[in-house]
Specification:
With 86 residues, the chain is mostly beta strands. It has one domain. The protein is 0% helix and 38% strand. The protein has no helices and 6 strands. A 3-stranded antiparallel β-sheet has the order 1-2-3, with no helix packed on it. Strands 4-5-6 form a 3-stranded antiparallel β-sheet, with no helix packed on it. β2 and β3 form a beta hairpin. It is elongated and about 45 Å long.
């Protein structure tokens, strides 16, 4: 079952939509199992924030490296949790 452009649900597991790598159970925040790269938004140039605390988070598959999702957050904020309802 397709969850997004990049994630699938295989039974009760969330998997990478590109390679099928199992990330976690559907009740777990899959972002905690992905590879995380955080970049201060100020390094991206105008018109982005100049505040060092604002980050672009990039989540990738730990198996194939495919981009799974991005989010903008304040430093030390928890990951957004996309709850799966089936």
């Amino acid at each position: 079952m397709r969850l997004s452009q990049t994630l699938d649900l295989d039974g009760t597991s969330i998997v990478c939509g590109h390679c099928g790598h199992g990330l976690c159970d559907k009740d777990v925040n899959w972002k905690e199992k992905a590879i995380l790269n955080e970049t201060p938004m100020r390094t991206l140039g105008d018109p982005y924030s100049t505040d060092e605390q604002v980050l672009l988070r990039v989540f990738s598959c730990p198996n194939c490296g495919a981009l799974l999702d991005t989010e903008t957050a304040m430093k030390d904020d928890p990951f957004l949790h996309d709850k799966i309802f089936t």
